[in-house]
Amino acid sequence: MTDITDSAAQPERRETGRSILEADARTKKRNRAETRFKAYGIAALGVGGLFLIALLWAILSNGLTAFTQTYVQLDVPLIEEKLDKDGDRDPAKIAKVSTFGYNPLIEQALVELVEREGLETELEPKALTKMLSGAAAADIRDRVLANPELIGQTVSFEVLASSRVDGYLKGRVSRESLARDKNLDAEHLDLIDALQQTGAVEKRFNWAFITGADASDSRPEQAGIGVAMLGSLFMMLVVLVLSLPIGVAASIYLEEFAPQNRLTDLIEVNISNLAAVPSIVFGILGLAVFIQFMHLPQSAPLVGGLVLTLMTLPTIIISTRAALKAVPPSIRDAALGVGASKMQSVMHHVLPLAMPGILTGTILGLAQALGETAPLLLIGMVGYIATNYPDGVAEGFLAPNSAMPAQIYEWAKRADPAFYERAWGGIIVLLVFLLAMNLLAILLRRRFERRW
Amino acid sequence: MNDMRTMDNAVNHDTKITARDVHVHYGTTHAIKGVDVDIADRTVTAFIGPSGCGKSTFLRCLNRMNDTIPGALVTGEIKIDEADIYDPRVDPVQLRAKVGMVFQKPNPFPKSIYDNVAYGPKIHGMARNKADLDEIVEKALRRGAIWDEVKDRLHAPGTGLSGGQQQRLCIARAVATEPEILLMDEPCSALDPIATAQVEELIDELKQNFSVVIVTHSMQQAARVSQRTAFFHLGHLVEFGETGKIFTNPEDSRTESYISGRIG
Amino acid sequence: MPTLPIVLIVLAIAVAAYLLARSRAQRAAAREGRRLHSLPNYYGWTGALYAAGPALLLLAVWLVAQPVATRMAVWPVLEAEAAPNAQPALLMADVQRLAAGIDAAVASGRVPAAEAGDIPAEELRELMAGQGVALGSDVTPATRQAALRWRGLSAGGDLARTLAVIGLALVGAAFGVSRAKPDFRARNAVETAMRGTLIGAALLAILTTVGIVLALIFNTIEFFRLYPAAEFFFGSTWSPSFGGGSELGILPLLWGTLYISIIALLVAVPIGLFAAIYLAEYAHKNVRSWAKPMLEMLAGIPTIVYGLFALLTVGPLLVDLFGRNGALGVNWMQGGTAVMTAGLVMGIMLIPFVSSLSDDIINAVPQSLRDGSLGLGATRSETVRQVVLPAALPGIVGAVLLAASRAIGETMIVVLGAGAAARLSMNPFDAMTTVTAKIVSQLTGDADFSSPEALVAFALGMTLFVITLALNVVALWIVRRYREQYE
Fold first, then answer.
1. How far is A364 from chain B (nearest CA, A)?
2. Which range marks the domain in which residue C48 is found?
3. C424: nearest Cα among C239, C242, C243
4. In this protein, which residues make up the domain named ABC transporter (chain B) (predicted)?
5. What is the average pLDDT value for chain A, to the nearest integer?
6. ipTM confidence score
7. pTM score, two decimals?
8. Is the pLDDT at C82 greater than 70, yes or no?
9. Mean pLDDT computed over B173-187
10. Does the distance separating the beta carbons of C368 and B96 come in below 8 Å?
11. Do residues C345 and C306 make contact, with C-beta atoms less than 8 angstroms apart?
12. Based on the number of CB atoms within 10 Å of its own CB, is A418 exposed (0-12), middle (13-18) or buried (19 or more)?
């Protein structure tokens, strides 16, 4: 080690002038670089936050209006000659009167409403009905069919205003944009303003949006997300019932029993890759296997649930394995030590201890499945107008239906911008569900979190 | 390496570091309780004591590495060359250039041997050009007593060296920035006996140029390499003095118990 | 007999087998004065498993196989008379509906069971209309023949299924009960069965992959029979027309996919990486406690929401800036849907993905390296840039590849935000389309699944699957290698 002794032989004089109390120019420069670098980090976080705020703002500002709806209070004279000529209240005969038969009555009611409120308008009675939804006549007809005794009286109904009127009152449709629209004139809008003053036209909370069914292209004011919500519910039931037991079983095998061999490796590689396969590919799988090969019905929540199960399983398996891994080996050793079999130690001790973690992971997997859209498009859960509630549980699984995200997509694709409000509103409903599921998962984690 | 060698070395009495009433808190833990110590220049000072006694914590106060731990609070006064290192005007970055540190586990960067050593000089702007840098690197590697072993593979990764070589590389890396004080936190605890002997020999050489403070678990090592020894126990500095005296004739009963193996 | 009653009967047999086997084992033990090898319940479970396991398995296989087999048996009846370009799937669907309609008519009593086979073809359509069954085309004698054959086969199959499944359950139960003797290792048998179930569940992962690959390969081969592979892979025009004469070149779609993904990564990687660095190296615990959930919120929002955000918010905003009469007066953008719109929004979606992966990777860099650098007097940013990032580089590359795979496979944002026109353009403000968007458009709607215009979606899916699989495998391999390095 001659090299050391060389330098060690003559201790050198080192400069001791470097005072640590004042920063030299280079340190200042370096500290400025440090500040800049830190600022980039803060800026990145800020931009992320900004995007989140912009997203939430877009959702809330566009979607909250879907939860109110404009209604017109209308006293409709249910004239007997028009609705029930024979006067014997035979439901079969009353049913023969189509919605066209109700239109003149509605016209009359509108004219009377305008007169009663002491308003003047140059609009023809026929033009007045443009202020109302096309659903108004059908709505009144349904009420009459349900209760034929109403015929002959003048009954007060709350009917939906047309989507243009609704949009005007919500500020979505301006007078300028309506100028190019053949549906409503400035006259209509003046009348609406006046009627709103008198209280005959008012905005109310829109329960029908949350509970109702989708409507045809021409009636955005009537469209609701209720049926699609039910479709999602049935799909989630399928996902839960299938993915929880299968996911737990697969995880237990891989975590507790699987020997180190090729097959195990193959399974592990498959799971981690499936977790990253684009969701649309699962849609192709569902289309080819469940619909083309097994001939299960198109658009059915059962098929949607099967596809989403296959898609969610890798996520659930990964989180379940983490939960099993978190149970310390000492628990297993203790069980084995008192003579339990391996299976008994897992089933009686490890699994119950891992259960909160497993449930948390499953809920988060379900939340992911609930928001997934792409695979549903391929198995036919769009383009279909879900206007009816399923008749029963079996129908709920097998009859064509939509799902919340598919319904939102459907609305986004429609021509009338009034459906956009519905789409944003649908997103709020969807996000409320996701938020609730995530909160449940967090609560579960907090409540049962265990430190070993 | 005989234990009596320490007696041969004249002990330097120029004080380099002065600490007065130093307390360290980690959250609710009171890790260092009122330590006063004077560390001499061009001397090897050893901190010994049972694990958890605070010797490493105190060492990390000397170059303000505790700043990097959230929740650590240092009070009291530590002066290096009469300048308070906890003065708000002090930039810890500049301080650490002056007070180098070698860690328990060899931690070469995942870079070449050359880049490992050149890293400090580069960030502190010590070299004007490549030739300068080459010179600094070579000198540091020679001081680290590893030049002969690596001079033919300066651009091989530093992580490919053996444990002892890695630790000497880390010492060379610390030395390259021309510090005045070298802090060593159990530098041999991860090394085998032969590598340990090499590093100890190196430490002995380093005291020609640096004030070396070494934390060690091994009393034999403290006796072999240091001129002064401080014994820490439960956050207190129990006894501080000439190494020979501490090991042969301790004043405090706790020191004696530790030396003779009854506590620790 | 319908499926549900069969299952219930099998389960009832299993319960009976459970009780019998358990009591038999207990009685035998008492009689012979020996201890049972296992707890009595395990003997019961053995009986139940022998009864229900094979029977239910047979039922499941039968349920899938019977329609397929019946279809193959009925098709020859139709084939002779079918028009050369007729679609088997549609014809068979009619046959099935007709058969189901006749069943319903018999069930409702409109047609006596004995005469169901004698209704002439002409009357069938009327009967079906009365039954509320809509048929795609007129009932030809061949269709009628096929439907009747279908009915016959199905009825036979159903009966055979019921008998076979229940019979198997009974045999299994008898066998299970007969084995319930004290020296039988019932617990081991039950545990072996459980283990088999667990393995089966784990194998589902492989089965899913096999399913995906087979579904893609078969249909892709079918597509390449109708459309030359070379033109698909190297064609630079995408113009499908269901009337025939389509040009189905994948290049414009790949270009759109790539362009959008690159823009998305240009947004997500710097922001995500810097956010991760800040959170891992600088942020105070309090900042982390709200900033991480904030980023995770972005990750938890479904892609349909991002799609709508692109279509209705970001697109119009960009047009206001870059479009005709826009704030910048550049007139680069014709409509709201564009590569930039989709890329930007996809970038936002990927930020949390990049940042959480990078966060893990940066945290995996050992603290001792940071200490070493700080101990030499490096600042934090110097430590990050010169020590932490180079050490974490492989992991970060892996994370970026995973993000790229995500971007390439993302569907809803591009379906709503990127436009429908397939073109090879450099202008990021042009509308373009992607592989995923075209898979959706070719497979939704009323396309006939055997036309090249629909089958091309499977070839697109195959391409997508291969690209993302390759990216994932490489990325996961890099990340794993990286993790091992510091373990």
1. 32
2. 3-184
3. C239
4. 17-259
5. 83
6. 0.88
7. 0.85
8. no
9. 90
10. no
11. yes
12. buried
